[in-house]
Amino acid sequence: MPITVKCFANLTQFQPENSEAFDISDNETAGSVLDRLGVPTGQVALVFVNNVITGRDTVLKDGDSMGIFPPIGGG
Amino acid sequence: MDKILRIDVGASGGPRVTIADMGDYAGLGGRGLTSAIVNAEVPADCHPLGPENKLVIAPGLLSGTSAAMAGRISVGCKSPLTNGIKEANSGGQGGQVLARLGYAAIVIEGGRQGDELYVLRVSKDGATVTADESVRMATNYQLMEKFQPEYGSKGAMISIGTAGEMRLSAASIAVSDVEGRPTRHAGRGGVGAVMGSKGIKAIVLDGTGAEVHKPAHPEAFKAARKEWAKGLAKHPVTGQGLPAYGTNVLTNVINEAGAYPTRNFSTGQFEGASKISGETQAALEVERGGTATHGCQRGCVIKCSGSFNSKEGLFVTKQPEYETVWSHGGNCAIDDLDIIAEIDRLDDDYGLDTIEMGATIAVAMEAGVIPFGDGQGAINLMHEVGKGTPLGRILGSGAAVTARAFGLEHAPVVKGQAMPAYDPRAIKGIGVTYATSTMGADHTAGYAVATNIMKVGGDVDPLAVEGQAELSKNLQIATAAVDSTGMCLFVAFAVLDQPETFQALVDLLNACYDWDLDADGVAAFGKKVLSFERDFNARAGFTPADDRLPSYFKREPLAPHNVVFDISDEELDTVFA
After folding, report:
1. Residue B2 has pLDDT above 90, yes or no
2. Is B210 part of a structural domain of the chain?
3. Partners of residue A40 in chain B, C-beta under 8 Å
4. Per the domain annotation, does A74 fall within a domain?
């Protein structure tokens, strides 16, 4: 089943080509997707699922949207 | 840095200059000094453009030293936008130069006599004030052309464009940057209008003979300075994120969080966000021969700025910041970085607050003056403001006045000042700051976004009610202290996360002034500054009823989270209980 996955700032290199329809398996977690994309754990500061900040253990479902960010700030 | 320079513009025979020692204000700097002087010397019930108001310009406590990031300059007065106390601070070279000339503050006071415009020149030998008809209705870049041969690379200029001269409530005060350009602004609250009301068009600082401020304990200061720079370099935000992408790196994350105010705060996500994001902007700047990493002042190690060139490779403006890209971009449904950069240039040139102007144009769009997304229309409106047409004067008076003129409820303001680039319904901590800050809606007054979204300095859920008042309170206290040091507020990312970097900042102050501050002392200092401001605002007529968001934020849900601002009035009142 497909989800959307976007990587931002200096993690854009890890964004998959099929980011709008990235296939996941049943009960796959956010952490598993991060591992499959090869994003080094230490470089990830924020993981959003459907616009809510979440953790690696969140189980994904069909049509979810994931956003992955390194540490950032501004204002 | 132990003198206060006073300019009485109401003196008979023309403005009179006096120089005095610090007196009762010793030990204060930056926001602490501007708020102390305004609170003590300005009648709280005065008209902001009248003779009783004063404009106070003060470098921070550590400005003029050799410490990194210490050159912010504070501008204080009674605000014509909020009718309360105001401190707006700016980067650029002005803070360092003024401090190194030995001045803790310039105070411009008295009632302007006649219609003359004046240029104030400050050097190590003193100050002069000269009438100059040639600056009338000059823009900031025109003033740069005229005065840069004087201030050169060692000095600086502090100036108002046409908006300040017309005393518009959205007018800023420009401070020249490393290249001498008027790209840094004390933006908020209409401080430029107060400078205009005093008839002072430009302050030219001659840097000749300016000397680095010597700390009381040079060896201790040197050690603290090293630890300070090390701490800033090693934190991922101050050492990597901000230098690479600038503040506009926030577009994507705030949009992802569903808190990106779009089309005059009517929804929390903008479909064109990726076209105007920091990532896109940085790549475009480099592709066009500009730079994505640049400091606005010497001694900056974070370097969050850059330079934005046209398609032809010619300089347009400094890298527009996140707040500007949002206000003139997503909030107006404009997804074109070239349009946004052109408007940024116009804000700098006419001397206008980018947040207030973007918020105002979005209100005008909702009113139907021009459609949402109309970039050229927005540029045309900016020229109306800069030239002072009747419509332009309404827009240049800010979002609240514009909404009133067009009969709209949707004015996203607190105490008359427009909200910045975070919707308070989806980042509730910043909503508490907007509501309760002494400054009106001001993200910098207590940047809860750091803890709500970026998880710097802890972790408080942005959508939760619990913990937001306490978070905002502590950040407002810390910020009032940091704003008094002259340090750029971006140091807070490292200071909040790294105890040794916080300690380095305390050590810098102690070594500089022979103090023995500890963490409690820093908090007490911040509280003292806030007490000056709260005291002034109370006497100006503010009550707890003013520490509120507009009621439609409590009534109209924001997509995609479909949330309202649901922190109770009682909870808001605990911030300063």
Report:
1. no
2. no
3. none
4. no
B493 shares its domain with B472: yes
Pairwise CB contact (< 8 Å): A72 & B245? yes
Residues B347, B458 share a domain: no
Is there a domain that residue A64 lies in?
A: yes
Residue numbers of the domain that contains B153: 3-205
Residues of A in contact with B489 (CB under 8 A): 75
The arithmetic mean of pLDDT across residues B309-321, rounded, is 98
**Has residue B299 got a pLDDT over 90?**
yes
Report residue B59: phi and psi, to 5°.
Answer: -65, 165
- A73: nearest CB among B279, B321, B493: B493
CA B64 to chain centre: 20
Contacts B237 to A, Cβ<8 Å:
71-73
Residues B428, B418 share a domain: no
Q: Which of B116, B115, B95 is nearest to B106 (CA)?
A: B95
List residues of B whose CB lies inside 8 A of any A CB.
Answer: 236-238, 240-242, 244-250, 252-253, 256-258, 269, 277-279, 304, 321-323, 443-444, 447, 449-450, 453-456, 461-463, 489-490, 493, 560-561
Asked, for residue B139, whether it belongs to a domain, the answer is: yes
Return d(Cα B59, Cα B94) in angstroms, integer.
Answer: 8
- Residue-wise pLDDT for B378-414, tens only, equals 999 999 999 999 999 999 999 999 999 999 999 999 9
Of B423, B442, B472, the residue at which a domain comes to its end is: B423
- Predicted pLDDT at B546: 98
- Residue B417 reports pLDDT greater than 80: yes
Q: Report chain B's mean pLDDT, rounded to a whole number.
A: 97
CB < 8 Å to B443, chain A: 75
The CATH number given to whatever domain includes residue B574 is 1.10.599.10
- Chain segment B103-131, per-residue pLDDT in tens: 999 999 999 999 999 999 999 999 999 99
Cβ–Cβ below 8 Å for A9 and B456: no
Residues in chain A closer than 8 A to B321 (CB atoms): 74
Overall number of domains in chain A: 1
Q: Which residues face B158 on adjacent strands?
A: B175, B203
Same domain, B196 and B272: no
Coil, helix or strand at residue B470: helix
Cβ of B237 and A72 within 8 Å? Answer: yes
Tell me the β-bridge partners of B309. Answer: B315
pLDDT of residue A75: 82
Q: What is the pLDDT of residue A74?
A: 87
Residue B1 in this model has a pLDDT that exceeds 80: no
Which residue has tokens 């503040």? B247
- Per-residue burial over B526-541, b if 16 or more Cβ lie within 10 Å, else e, is bebbbebbbbbbeebe
Given a cut of 70, whether residue B503 has pLDDT beyond it is: yes
The answer to whether position B150 is within a domain reads: yes
Q: Mean pLDDT, to the nearest integer, of B426-436? A: 98
ipTM of the complex: 0.97
Query: B127 forms bridges with which residues in the sheet?
Result: B122
Q: Give the nearest chain A residue to B449 (CA atoms).
A: A75
Q: How many domains does chain B have?
A: 3
User: Which structural domain range is residue A35 located in?
Assistant: 2-69
Report CA Rg, chain B.
22
Q: What token pair was written down for B471?
A: 């978070």
Question: Do A74 and B247 make contact, defined as CB atoms within 8 angstroms?
Answer: yes
CB contact at 8 A, B308 and B320? yes
Contact call for A69 and B456, based on CB within 8 A: no
User: Which of B423, B448, B471 is the last residue before a domain boundary?
Assistant: B423
Same domain flag for B405 and B521: no
Q: B153 and B14 in one domain?
A: yes
Asked whether residue A55 is assigned to any structural domain, the reply reads yes
Rounded to a whole number of angstroms, the distance from the CA of A6 to the nearest CA of chain B is 10
